[in-house]
Design goal:
Layout lengths: L4 H42 L6 H17 L4 H18 L13 H9 L10 H7 L3 H8 L4 H15 L1 H5 L11 E5 L4 E8 L2 E5 L5 E5 L1 H8 L5 H6 L3 E5 L1 H13 L7 H25 L1
Parallel strand pairs: 1-4
Antiparallel strand pairs: 1-2, 2-3, 4-5
């Protein structure tokens, strides 16, 4: 056994160095997370959207070039960047999917279940133009009994907001009423927190958020940020501004991973489909 002692000693030293490097990687990742928090606070003031895909692309290109100089396999560098960027997105409550960069676990599941309209076929734009725009569907939706609309909306909100409701983050809505207006579908619901759940009420709202069904879906599906939508007047806040902004800020802080996967699929892909349909109709009318 004595003849193996030098090799074992060298192995132990090499492993100790690897452990030190691993510790260094964790320290660097923790430092990166602190910087991400700072960047997330600075983005709104700088007029930069929460998800900057151009920046991500530049980071990836620089990493690939640097990895080549270090003789590091491209797949290893790519995996490390996916880890760092995915962690930053989750930290900011942003979706990290294949349509917005490299994919991680849930994103791969979403893309495998429900392809985006742009990938369906070259005929997709022509087919989407055949669909009636939302304003033509509005009369059909008004046929649906109001109690069905309320039940669907309340059930959906209970699932999406389960964690914030449990943690009391929506307590500011006690005795307050916020309306959501889907302008092109001519739908309007007034929401109030009652007995720990958001309910649809007939009372007059203190504040209202108005927007098209497509823009509201883009916001819910994390494909557009609220600051951009409000700045471009695609969403409009009226009435008690403080109430509306408080609700908006709470939703922006909602961790995307806390939303059930099936609902994330529906929101994300529904928003993509609605956006593609709107683009097809606009091209037809231009």
């Amino acid at each position: 056994m004595s003849r193996h002692l030098p090799e074992r000693f060298a192995l132990a030293r090499a492993r100790a160095v690897i452990d030190g490097i691993d510790d260094g990687l964790l320290v660097l990742l923790a430092a990166r997370r602190r910087l991400v928090r700072t960047v997330a606070r600075l983005k709104p003031a700088a007029g930069v959207p929460p998800r900057d895909l151009g920046r991500e692309q530049r980071v990836r290109e620089r990493a690939r070039a640097f990895a080549a100089r270090l003789d590091l396999p491209p797949s290893t560098a790519q995996g490390l960047l996916d880890l760092a960027i995915g962690d930053a997105c989750r930290q900011q409550g942003l979706v990290f999917d294949q349509g917005q960069g490299a994919a991680t676990g849930n994103a791969l599941i979403i893309d495998s279940i429900m392809p985006t309209p742009s990938l369906l076929s070259p005929m997709t734009p022509q087919l989407l133009r055949l669909l009636p725009p939302p304003r033509r569907i509005a009369p059909l939706l008004r046929v649906m009994p109001l109690r069905w609309q309320r039940r669907l909306l309340e059930t959906g909100m209970a699932r999406v907001l389960a964690a914030p409701l449990l943690e009391g983050e929506l307590d500011f809505m006690h005795g307050r009423r916020l309306a959501i207006e889907v302008t092109d579908l001519r739908l309007r619901w007034v929401l109030e927190l009652q007995q720990g759940r958001l309910r649809v009420t007939d009372a007059e709202p203190e504040a209202s958020v108005r927007g098209s069904v497509t823009d509201l879906l883009l916001l819910a599906g994390r494909l557009e940020d609220a600051d951009t939508l409000f700045f471009q007047r695609r969403l409009v806040l009226t009435g008690d501004t403080e109430l509306g902004l408080t609700a908006r800020n709470m939703l922006e802080r909602l961790p995307w991973e806390s939303v059930p996967l099936g609902l994330r699929i529906a929101l994300n892909r529904g928003a993509r489909f609605a956006r593609a349909a709107r683009t097809a109709h606009r091209r037809e009318n231009s």
